[in-house]
Amino acid sequence: QLLFLNQLQKDLEEVKELLTKATRKRVRDVLMTEKHKLELEIKNQPPQKPKEVAEEDKSSLGGYTVKINNYGWDQSDKFIKIYISLNGVQKLPAENVQVNFTERSFDLLVRNLNGKNYTMTFNNLLKPISVEGSSRKIKTDTVLVMCKKKREEKWECLTQVEKESKEKEKAAYDTSDPSEGLMNLLKKMYAEGDDEMKRTINKAWVESREKQSKGDIPMDI
Length: 221
Description:
The chain has helices at about 1-20, 25-45, 50-60, 160-175, 180-190, 195-215, and strands at about 65, 70-75, 80-85, 95-100, 105-115, 115-120, 130-140, 140-150.
């Protein structure tokens, strides 16, 4: 669709140029008819949504595309600020750094930085943002994404997924029995740990069982 629209616009430009050179009335009438026809066709083309443009940009990228996972963030009363480190990004043309915002998400696309393209997607933001008030700034080796809060309130995290994960983790350890909370923590450390961590926990477990059997400690940890 975008390619077709570009072709129509080029045709219209050429017709206008020919009109400036044409002297015969019949030729001018034919060109004027074509000019009106092209203008009407361009006018009737459906507008492209920003999201669609962003998706088309991604699908037509040349070169190697890198998904950005590392970032830092901060907030003020009015903005959530996401900092993305990209060496040399300030040397790019401004149009090579694009951000598409929705009320609960944003997509970042950085084109042709040192021969690579970079993308980052944040979905399901914790709270709604103002699309019109949000923007991006290019600083030395950094892209700063400014998400305008719809309400001036503190965010405890960036996304709804992070919030749910924190609540589940807190619920697992927030028990009336301290030994149960400790057991839950040890289970989590064991499940997520490497071999060395598992050996350490197993050793501590065996030693605690031995001490308990000797009556050195009253409680099973």
